Amino acid sequence: MEAALEPARARYDELMALMATEELYADSARFDACMKEYNALKKRIPSLEEEWLELSAALEEAVDE
To answer: How many whole angstroms separate alpha carbon 47 and alpha carbon 32?
Structure first.
């Protein structure tokens, strides 16, 4: 799960930095692609985090038993 979550967070951070640059807004096709990817990650990351927490809790319970 971490193998999916960490790259998603890293790419989200990259996109946030990219969206802070003026040159992105000068290229409408690139801007649209970045926004599409940003919105997808914005939805995916919380889902991955929730799944990671559930798996961590299940693992903890298994270890405690």
So the answer is: 23
The tokens for 58 are 């299940």
The pTM of this model reads 0.77
Tokens 């038993």 identify what position? 65
Sign of CA dihedral 52, 53, 54, 55: positive
Write out the DSSP string of the chain. -HHHHHHHHHHHHHHHHHTTSHHHHH-HHHHHHHHHHHHHHHHHHHHHHHHHHHHHHHHHHHHH-
Q: pLDDT tens, 33-53?
A: 999 999 999 999 999 999 989
